[in-house]
Amino acid sequence: MKFQAIKLLVASMLVLAASSAFATTVHETFYTAPGTNAYLYFDYVPANGGASSVKVENFSTDGILGSAFTSAPDVINAASGALPGTLTFNNSATFGITDYLQGITFGKSFSFDVDYSDFTAGSSTFSLWVSSDKAGLNPLLTDSGLALVTDLNGDNSISAANSAPVPEPSSVFLMLFGLAGVIGYRVHKQKGLAALVEAPALVA
Amino acid sequence: MNRKTKKSLQSLGLAAAFSLLGTTAFAGVLKKPYLIYEMPNTTMTVLWQDTAVETTNTISWGTDTSYGLGSATVPEETRPGTVNQHKYQIAGLTPNTKYYYQVADSSSGLVYGTGSFITAPEENATSVKFIGQGDSRSQPFALNNLMKSIKAFSAQSPEFAEYQRLTIANGDWVSTDGESYWTNEWFVPAMTDIAAYTASTPMDGVKGNHDNSSGYSTTFTKYWPFPYPNATLKAGSAATYNNLYWSMDYGPVHVTYVDEYSSYAPGSPQYNWLISDLTNTTKPWKILVYHEPSYSSGKDADNVAARALEPLVTQYNVDLIFAGHSHNYARTGAYSAAQANGDQIALNVPHFTSGGGGAPIYQPDYSNTGNFPHVITAWPAYQFMTFDVNGKNLTMNAYQINNVSSTAIRPLSSSFPAADGGQTLSVSLIEQVALHHFTNVASQITATPGNFVYNRATKLYTGNLTLTNNGPALSGKIDVVLDGLVNLQGIGSADNEYSTASPKVTSKIANKPGTGKGSSDPGLATNLTLTNATGSNNGEPMIQASSTGLAKGASLSVALSFSNPTNGEIKFNPVTYQE
After folding, report:
1. For residue A157, what pLDDT is reported?
2. Same domain, A76 and A126
3. What residues of chain B lie within 8 A of the CB of A155, using their CB?
4. How far from chain centre, in Å, is Cα B105?
5. Which residue of chain A comes nearest to B562, CA vs CA?
6. Contact B538, B450 (CB under 8 A)
7. Could you say which of A78, B26, B83, B351 would form a disulfide bridge with B332 (CB–CB 3.0 to 4.6 Å)?
8. Does B569 touch chain A (CB under 8 A)?
9. Residue B567 sits at the chain A interface (C-beta within 8 Å)
10. Interchain CB distance below 8 Å, B567 and A76
11. Domain that includes residue B108, residue range
């Protein structure tokens, strides 16, 4: 019985760990020079990955959004949607790059959430390229032009460069909720409700 | 007899005398001296044919054109059916050394021909160069243009001259196994470039279907008496043979020639000999040569029976197959069981068709949906190949010869090997394929690609590959092959004058490269060029990850840069090798 309980605990922790790495929404904030005209290139490049998608949600800025570009030659395979609404970068049609170009006059900052909950294992990368020209030749914010690179590695881990991702409150809540469940289970078990532990699906 | 009549008779007599003199001068040699290499590496064999029973033919040789090293009187061959044919194996030579020779008739003082050769490499040599060609038949002008171009190609530098030390030929030397075809197609006096080439390049090879007559050959063996170990005389015949298979060592290379017109089915004497031959060779590089390819781009049908040899190719680590038959260049193969699609084909082994050696050009089938599966690259062209072995590396180049005519001898380009815009002979690269005998260490290396972003300024996709060594420390150079991609950097310019398609073909790459008929596998990807590749392996791009090894448990990151003009999928399988 004790052995079964330990396995259940480990299984629960693994589910939590996987959830925190896989079903994550990350909030990104970029601080900018007000009045600067710029272009934001959002790119989703799947490498060695399957069909998947990434969403940009809750875009917010005190600047002014300009024109959006959704067709060649400005973009390659346009994402669906338009800022400040949700953008969906879905590669299932081409397995190639999906992108979106947005003109903007900067305010003090802009921010958005990136929802990675629907990507598949692989080496897909979500990135934001910022430049002062539509051709993307004159970088802003960073020397390379890359303001954000989020590498979705083959082991499903997420690593971000040039950004300080903060888990959304909902993610933190889910993690705490799961942990509370485990603790609750331990307490419950100690009170003698052994029947739950016997559930075969939980220890398979 | 009046004065006028007397003068006429004098003129007639003078004409007759000149005629006789001319006959004597040109009748002495019918087939000028040419070379075959029979082994060992201290020998070279010279053959020629005169027009009568002569007992005063002599050959002399040396390390310069004074031919002071040795000489011999060479009587006619005694093999049945070799009338007026002479054959002499010069022995006692030093391996890997250039020699000059002269064949003459000591009684008339006529020189029948001169030439030179480089003896085969030392037994322990690790590097060598040579040439491959096939299907010369029926168009002597085209063959002459081809050999003229190869000769000039080899004359570019001392390094290139090494290529002309040997030609391996994959068959269909002439149209029919008959005396007149050799006289009218191969040994044509006016085709001086053929004679010049074969006087200075030993040609070793195998018969093709056009050199075959109901499973046997008569004149082929007369002119190309390679050291066949089990040639079998046809019952009731004095000079007609089958089982014309054989093999040779040449430096670090073992070349095995399969006679497809004698049984080679599993269990046959030739099949058993082949197993013994491949088992016993100690040479690191193994090449299998036969005429009709098991897989080609057409239009002559693939030899399905030859696919029975594919398991031996895998079992005995044959590096490549060199065939002809279809008059074009093609590289076929499969890299995975999915690409093999149930066909019997040795995986990861290039199957070359090099049949553009002079016969009329055939147009390739690029579809991979019909009778010609597993085509990777193909090109309709007069062509030849070069082989360059250097230690663990074998580099092969397929070259197109431009402006070959089948009705006239063309001059060389004034910018040879480049074209000069005129109707002149020039050479351009079709593709380069490299093979390596490196150690596959993928089982202990985790290779994870990542961080792929699109650079708006350079239009390149850049990312990296993280290698982690989960096994013992690795020393030396570490390379990664991006399996699943065509090495586009090895594909030459798409200038094709020999295409009869409308519009002319411009791509050398087949549809779904490597796949078979009805295969659901997408084949090798053709949208990505690894722009920072440091090499290639079997037609796939390769990049050096480390020059100093990788310690146990250590990781390193390799930058990758792709040109991806179609913005297609980035997908590959990284396979790590230790040099």
Report:
1. 67
2. yes
3. 448
4. 34
5. A47
6. no
7. B351
8. yes
9. yes
10. yes
11. 27-120
